[in-house]
């Protein structure tokens, strides 16, 4: 893909309905945990958590695009070509960390790791000052990469689930 094609692809896929749902669920969990505690409870606290998480998502997408363009990574996800739940699960987790290159080869997905950790560290700047630490950034980046892995697994199996529920044609 050319950089222009990647930009168009990313523009179409950077903000999807699942991103709003994922942000809402993550914000609800943070609200329940009262994390960070400096952000109040109630609608205002939830809105702050939601805005923070969505802003972090947008920063992450920007970093991912930039690294993909420079590193010649194809932004499209690799789907498993193997049969069996276990094989597909292993591939889904693996493909969080493996990206297709523009030349057809595969290699480490620098964009996903850089995006997860870069956005985590940047977002610490608008969090309460006690979270302006290396450890806090590392934890947030690792959580982001974990969510990314979960979404990769979900995307691997979702067509099968929808087919079983008769929500999608074969």
Keywords:
66% helix; mainly alpha; globular; 170 residues
What can you see in these coordinates?
By secondary structure, this protein is mostly helical. The mean pLDDT is about 90. A two-stranded antiparallel ribbon has the order 1-2. Helix 2 packs across helix 3, helix 3 packs antiparallel against helix 5 and helix 4 packs antiparallel against helix 6. It is built from 6 helices and 2 strands. The protein has one domain.
Distance between the termini: 28 Å
Number of domains: 1
Strand content: under 5%
Largest sheet: 2 strands, antiparallel
Task: Identify the overall geometry.
Answer: globular
**β-strand number:** 2
| Low-pLDDT stretches | none
The number of helical elements comes to 6
SSE layout and pairing:
Elements: H1 3-13, H2 17-33, H3 42-71, H4 85-94, E1 98-100, E2 106-108, H5 110-123, H6 134-164
Antiparallel strand pairs: 1-2
In short:
This protein has 6 helices and 2 strands.
């Amino acid at each position: 893909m050319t950089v222009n094609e990647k930009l168009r692809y990313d523009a179409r896929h950077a903000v999807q309905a699942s991103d709003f749902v994922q942000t809402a669920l993550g914000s609800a969990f943070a609200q329940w945990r009262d994390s960070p505690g400096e952000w109040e409870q109630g609608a205002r606290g939830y809105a702050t958590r939601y805005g923070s998480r969505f802003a972090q998502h947008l920063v992450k997408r920007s970093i991912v695009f930039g690294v993909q363009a420079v590193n010649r990574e194809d932004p499209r996800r690799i789907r498993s070509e193997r049969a069996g739940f276990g094989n597909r699960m292993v591939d889904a987790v693996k493909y969080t960390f493996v990206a297709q290159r523009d030349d057809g080869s595969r290699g480490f997905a620098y964009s996903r790791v850089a995006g997860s950790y870069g956005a985590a560290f940047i977002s610490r700047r608008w969090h309460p000052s006690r979270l302006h630490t290396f450890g806090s950034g590392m934890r947030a980046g690792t959580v982001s990469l974990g969510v990314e892995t979960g979404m990769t697994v979900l995307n691997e199996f979702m067509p099968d689930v929808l087919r079983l529920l008769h929500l999608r044609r074969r």
